[in-house]
């Protein structure tokens, strides 16, 4: 158990309180209240193995006694929450004339419930909440970096594939030029052969009338 005793007081007058343990700390709390200056302050008193933390503001004192193991962050977060609940409660508006323990029935259960919450599952205070948000941002940044690295690997793989395709395209162009050159030579040979065959065919036709040496046609003329 971290928080043992908590109260709300107007000066030395205790308006409402709650004690979680069986030991009576009324004398100790009255002694602490008598030492608190009237000006706004926030301080911790040491008594035996316990720590008395308090926030004094606007004439009211919010005090909590806790074990040393609780430190200071959690008890002061509890006191800040207790102060917010008290100032927002309707009964606080008339507390200037309230006698000792006059708000015990209306605000005592609020103190008890708040102590139970902080002793069992204390809500994250501002520092812890900021650290949690920082860790979340860090996790998101790590995920983004990992995704960027993963995309970078895929980009490198795509570049490698593009280089391979570019090499294949170059080889294809070279092969196409070679095929065109070979077809050109083949066509040229076919044309030359056709031209030669045509000449031979024309010679054979002319030779039927003029003789093999074409001398008969020259003689007739």
UniProtKB/TrEMBL annotation:
<feature type="transmembrane region" description="Helical">
    <location>
        <begin position="190"/>
        <end position="214"/>
    </location>
</feature>
<dbReference type="GO" id="GO:0005737">
    <property type="term" value="C:cytoplasm"/>
</dbReference>
<dbReference type="InterPro" id="IPR051097">
    <property type="entry name" value="Synaptobrevin-like_transport"/>
</dbReference>
<dbReference type="GO" id="GO:0016192">
    <property type="term" value="P:vesicle-mediated transport"/>
</dbReference>
<keyword id="KW-1133">Transmembrane helix</keyword>
<dbReference type="InterPro" id="IPR001388">
    <property type="entry name" value="Synaptobrevin-like"/>
</dbReference>
<feature type="domain" description="Longin">
    <location>
        <begin position="7"/>
        <end position="111"/>
    </location>
</feature>
<dbReference type="GO" id="GO:0012505">
    <property type="term" value="C:endomembrane system"/>
</dbReference>
<protein>
    <recommendedName>
        <fullName>Synaptobrevin homolog YKT6</fullName>
    </recommendedName>
</protein>
<dbReference type="InterPro" id="IPR042855">
    <property type="entry name" value="V_SNARE_CC"/>
</dbReference>
<dbReference type="GO" id="GO:0016020">
    <property type="term" value="C:membrane"/>
</dbReference>
<keyword id="KW-0812">Transmembrane</keyword>
<keyword id="KW-0472">Membrane</keyword>
<dbReference type="Pfam" id="PF00957">
    <property type="entry name" value="Synaptobrevin"/>
</dbReference>
<dbReference type="InterPro" id="IPR010908">
    <property type="entry name" value="Longin_dom"/>
</dbReference>
<keyword id="KW-0653">Protein transport</keyword>
<dbReference type="Pfam" id="PF13774">
    <property type="entry name" value="Longin"/>
</dbReference>
<dbReference type="InterPro" id="IPR011012">
    <property type="entry name" value="Longin-like_dom_sf"/>
</dbReference>
<feature type="domain" description="V-SNARE coiled-coil homology">
    <location>
        <begin position="126"/>
        <end position="186"/>
    </location>
</feature>
<keyword id="KW-0175">Coiled coil</keyword>
<dbReference type="GO" id="GO:0015031">
    <property type="term" value="P:protein transport"/>
</dbReference>
<keyword id="KW-0813">Transport</keyword>
<comment type="similarity">
    <text>Belongs to the synaptobrevin family.</text>
</comment>
């Amino acid at each position: 158990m971290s928080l043992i005793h908590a109260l709300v007081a107007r000066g030395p007058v205790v308006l409402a309180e709650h004690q979680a343990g069986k030991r009576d700390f009324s004398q100790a709390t009255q002694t602490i209240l008598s030492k608190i200056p009237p000006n706004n302050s926030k301080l911790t008193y040491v008594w035996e193995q316990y720590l008395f933390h308090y926030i004094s503001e606007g004439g009211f004192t919010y005090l909590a006694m806790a074990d040393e193991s609780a430190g200071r962050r959690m008890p002061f977060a509890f006191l800040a929450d207790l102060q917010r609940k008290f100032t927002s409660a309707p009964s606080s508006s008339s507390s200037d004339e309230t006698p000792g323990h006059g708000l015990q029935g209306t605000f005592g259960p609020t103190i008890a419930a708040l102590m139970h919450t902080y002793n069992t599952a204390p809500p994250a205070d501002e520092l812890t909440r900021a650290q949690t948000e920082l860790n979340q941002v860090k996790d998101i940044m790590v995920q983004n970096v990992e995704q960027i690295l993963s995309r970078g690997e895929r980009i490198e793989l795509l570049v490698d594939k593009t280089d391979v395709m570019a090499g294949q395209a170059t080889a294809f162009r070279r092969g196409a030029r070679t095929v065109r050159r070979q077809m050109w030579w083949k066509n040229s040979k076919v044309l030359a052969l056709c031209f030669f065959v045509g000449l031979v065919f024309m010679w054979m036709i002319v030779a039927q009338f003029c003789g093999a040496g074409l001398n008969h046609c020259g003689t007739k003329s």
